[in-house]
Amino acid sequence: MTATFNKSTRALDERALNTIFHDARTANRFLLEPVPAELLERIVETTKIAPTAMNSIPLRVVFVTTPEGRQRLKPLLSPGNVAKVESAPVTAILARDLNFHEQLPRLAPHAPQAVLERAREHADPMSLQNATLQAGYFILAARAHGLDAGPMGGFDNAGVDAEFFPDGTRKSILLVSLGYGDDGKLFPRNPRLDFSEIASFV
Predict the structure, then answer these.
(1) Long-range interactions of 113-120: CB distance < 8 A, separation 24+
(2) Pairing of strands 90-97, 59-64
């Protein structure tokens, strides 16, 4: 007799869902509470489980944690993001590695050579799509490990790339300030689209 597998037992409870999704907010200011390096490592270890094409894992992260690092980053921010970065104990620069395909023989050992060549030829769009997917996982991983996240796109990508990735093989896609958010500095939650405006069935 085959046992019935109840997949509903795999669902997260409401507390976990609230932590990661429903109650989570974009942090705009942070408390003066440090974030240990070990916690940042755990976030990266969780993020790398994200599904990527050919297990390519093109996301690369630079954690800006020092006053010197913040001074390098601040001139490249839009004015509205400066205070967020100044107050955050950590700001992660999320980037895509254009040379991710060099790791594919190790990460996708069963892939035919022709597939590896196609990945090299399409490195730009493939790295953008898959690293952006990983960036979403990165934010969820930070929340799951107890941090607040303040993702932002308002920055000079070319300037960040020149300052932090001068070899030209990595391209920034997103900044995410991390820490313990100051709830008193949150903006009111904006409306969301209804299900019917987002999704349909065919």
Answers:
(1) 115/54, 119/53, 119/54, 119/56
(2) antiparallel
Cα–Cα distance, 110 to 104 (Å, whole number): 10
- Pick out the chain residues at pLDDT < 50: none
CA–CA distance, 128 with 132 (Å, rounded to integer): 6
What is Dmax (Cα atoms) for the chain?
Answer: 67
Q: Is 70 exposed, middle or buried (0-12, 13-18, 19+ CB in 10 A)?
A: middle
The phi, psi pair for 158, rounded to 5°, reads: -65, -40
Domains of the chain, by residue range, sit at: 26-182
| Residue range 26-182, CATH number | 3.40.109.10
What tens digit of pLDDT does each residue of 1-38 get?
556 667 667 899 999 999 999 999 999 999 999 999 99
Average pLDDT of the chain? 95
pTM value? Answer: 0.94
User: What per-residue confidence (pLDDT) applies to 130?
Assistant: 98
Residue 9, number of CB atoms within 10 A of its CB: 6
Q: Is the Cβ–Cβ distance between 94 and 149 less than 8 Å?
A: no
Distance CA 47, CA 44 (A): 5
